[in-house]
């Protein structure tokens, strides 16, 4: 199918095409119909299912206002769900989005700490590969608006 389409396109560009592109090929019809085989996933995978995922409280984030002005930040969180469903590894990176005041490192530390605490409390039903629980890691992005 792809070959015919390519030849038709080339023919439209002035490239000579053979009269019968399949000439010279031996095509033998099958004596028996092909056996239909149903596709089976070789390794069944089920991703982790969230059971408890609380967000940081508004009150705790309010203490991290950057210079007391409105704006937004982006929080990138990397975390791994262990085989028991708890969150093991947590890394949080705070990027200032729309603030004219960029010098507040304490505010970034507070936001990072609040998100790290919240994500550490998350619980999941672990990912499963072939029925056995497996560790799985993710990256999630949050946009936080300060008004």
Supply the CATH architecture of one domain: 2-Layer Sandwich
Q: Helices and strands, in N-to-C order? A: HEEHEEHEEEE
Poorly predicted runs are: 1-16
Query: What would you give as the CATH superfamily of one domain?
Result: TonB
Roughly how many Å apart are the termini? Answer: 58 Å
Specify Rg, calculated over alpha carbons: 28 Å
Instruction: Give the proportion of residues in helices.
Output: 10-25%
Mean pLDDT: 75
Order of the strands making up the biggest sheet: 1-6-7
Explain what you see.
The structure is a single chain. The protein has 147 residues and is α+β, with helices and mostly antiparallel strands. The chain has a domain at 45-146: TonB (TolA/TonB C-terminal domain, 2-Layer Sandwich). Helices cover 22% and strands 32% of the residues. It has 3 helices and 8 strands. It has helices at residues 2-12, 58-62, 105-120; strands at residues 45-46, 49-52, 71-81, 87-96, 123-125, 127-129, 132-134, 136-146. It is elongated and about 80 Å long.
Write the layout of secondary structure elements.
Blueprint: H1 2-12, E1 45-46, E2 49-52, H2 58-62, E3 71-81, E4 87-96, H3 105-120, E5 123-125, E6 127-129, E7 132-134, E8 136-146
Antiparallel strand pairs: 1-6, 2-5, 3-4, 3-8, 6-7
Quick gist of this model?
This protein is an alpha+beta fold and 147 residues long. The protein has a domain at 45-146: TonB (TolA/TonB C-terminal domain).
Keywords:
22% helix, alpha+beta, 3 helices, TolA/TonB C-terminal domain
